[in-house]
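Morning, I've got a small favour to ask if you have a moment. It would help a lot if you went through both lines with me. Thanks so much in advance, here it is.

***
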Amino acid sequence: MPLSLLSPLPLLHSFSPTKSTVSRIRATQSRLRLSVVKATSEKGSSGNVPEDDPSFNPFGFVTDNPSSRSAIQLPESPAEDGNVGQMLYRTEDKGREFGSTIKAGKLRWFVRETGSKESRRGTVVFLHGAPTQSFSYRTVMSEMSEFGFHCYAPDWIGFGFSDKPQPGYGFNYTEKEYHEAFDKLLDTLEIKSPFFLVVQGFLVGSYGLTWALKNPSKVEKIAILNTPLTVSSPVPGLFKQLRIPLFGEFTCQNAILAERFIEGGSPYVLKNEKADVYRLPYLSSGGPGFALLETAKKINFGDTLGQIANGFSSGSWDKPTLLAWGIVDKYLSQSIAEEFEKQNPQNVELQLIEGAGHLPQEDWPEKVVAALRSFF
């Protein structure tokens, strides 16, 4: 079954469908929706996807925002609008600000760097979450280096411009492997003294926090942007979709998956030039989608969130910790940050960022910089 029958990927730009073809596609989509929804309901009792969860709809991951819409809608004259190859040509040089490829062990990381190792205020390492990339920190990094900080922001393995190895061939996208790979990267970058750590987002963002819990001596201070922190933190529909057998394989190959997720958690629409960068890895190959799929399948949400909630509580964590929280996050509510702060009020400071959503470093970088400067 062609992927285009399940989701209108940019590949559709390469042909001009007749009315009868469109009718057949719509009829097939309806049958597929019914069959997947039926299969999903049957799996409810197994615990994979709760059938009584009103927040989850496997076909609800949509947006009316212009940047996503322009990427997926059929133009009136597809031949004049360009195909996937032309889209890649238009965007392939975008999104690599301050970045270069660095090999650590057997893996190649794309790492952004601003400032210098002689910066007087110390080193800051920025870690992104899924399904985004370090591009989200570009403005924050630039401004922080102007204030005397040395900044690094890597793309996690499987994301952005870093390596995306096939599962089973040297990297299986588990928490342990992510931690080991990150340790090797820090060694390669020669980051030896305790540094400032900034973490944001789901999946690999959570692994950034569990790495800190296992390596407290390497962390001077930690700043946490919108990230699941409590056992009650909800899991967005995207990651539930990825864990549905077969349906996850289709979902992970959606070329506008990342920008949809960003816009879904934010009060703002991404400008096309930014959406292009988040879209680019998923347009270039199937590797990023399958890396995301494996990461979502391997994580144990309950265990990971339990580690974080307990590990950062009073008596367990004594490092200065900042919560810089976008209060209009549509995935993670302000109450999660407040609950986390109450678990360790001596060491956790909460700063609310008005007007920012799930990705505050993208929504309102100036306010994030102000919070980080005063804290670090």
Notes: The longest helix spans residues 19-42. Confidence is low (pLDDT under 50) at residues 1-17, 28-52, 59-64, 72-82.
